[in-house]
Specification:
Structural class: mainly beta
Strand order of the largest sheet: 2-3-4-9
Shape: globular
Largest sheet: 4 strands, antiparallel
Low-confidence stretches: 114-145
Number of helices: 1
Mean pLDDT: 77
Number of strands: 11
Helix content: under 10%
Radius of gyration: 19 Å
């Protein structure tokens, strides 16, 4: 890899901290987990909030806005309200400098959080459609509440 310009000095990202960089117009969050750097898109998939102001705890980053939690190594969602993973990026540290691989935009990635756009590896199943499976999920939820049942009332305390 190590092509293009370095985006950060590896030593500037202390253990357990993050650093926001912009590469090809895309905000990326570099995360130092136990001395290894990882790169994720600096955006919460729940509502588009930047993650760089969130708390990094081990490999977990918490969105400061609504508390969604992501794994910075895999991009997986670990806690609601987010349901879609964050995008991860390959990086390399060479000569103390951090390089991020240029983006393959053939999968529809435009640097923006756009859940209606096909994006490779957007779901755990490897689907290219952010919305795949959501209709079936909605139907399953709807089926669990028969139309004949009245909506639940207030809880007695």
């Amino acid at each position: 890899m190590a092509e293009g310009a370095a985006v950060a000095h590896a030593t500037a990202i202390e253990l357990g901290t993050t650093q926001r960089v912009v590469v090809e117009g895309v905000a990326i969050l570099l995360c130092n987990v136990d001395g290894t750097l990882y790169a994720i898109q600096d955006v919460c998939t729940h509502d588009g909030a930047p993650l760089d102001q969130g708390e990094l705890d081990g490999r977990r980053i918490t969105c400061p806005r609504h508390g969604a939690v992501f794994d910075v190594i895999t991009g997986a969602v670990l806690a609601l309200p987010a349901v879609l993973p964050v995008r991860t990026f390959a990086l390399e540290v060479k000569g103390g400098e951090v390089y991020i691989d240029s983006f393959d935009r053939s999968d529809g990635f435009d640097g923006e959080l756009n859940p209606t756009k096909p994006v490779a590896a957007a779901t755990a199943s490897g689907s290219n459609d952010w919305n795949e499976g959501l209709d079936a999920y909605d139907e399953t939820i709807a089926d669990s509440f028969p139309a004949s049942d009245p909506p639940p009332g207030p809880l007695a305390i």
